[in-house]
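Q: I have 68 residues here and want to know how they pack in 3D. Can you give me a structure?
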Amino acid sequence: MAKKLGPDTRLKAFETRHLTYSIPARNVALVRGELFYNLLWPELVKKFTRLPKDLTAAMPIAMSEVKL
């Protein structure tokens, strides 16, 4: 359980982040990254049970794919 708030890691407007990952598999041909956004915190989703699914579900907002 969290004891205090963590740092704010949300993207700023027009911010670009470059991430580096190690892939522990051999002969990987394709890497895909997908970014999802939740409009509401999970606790609020539990409280507002009558909201439409498109407001409570994680929404894809970006995708990038690289062939190796």
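Q: Anything worth noting?
A: DSSP finds two helices and two strands in the chain. The two ends are 39 Å apart (CA to CA).
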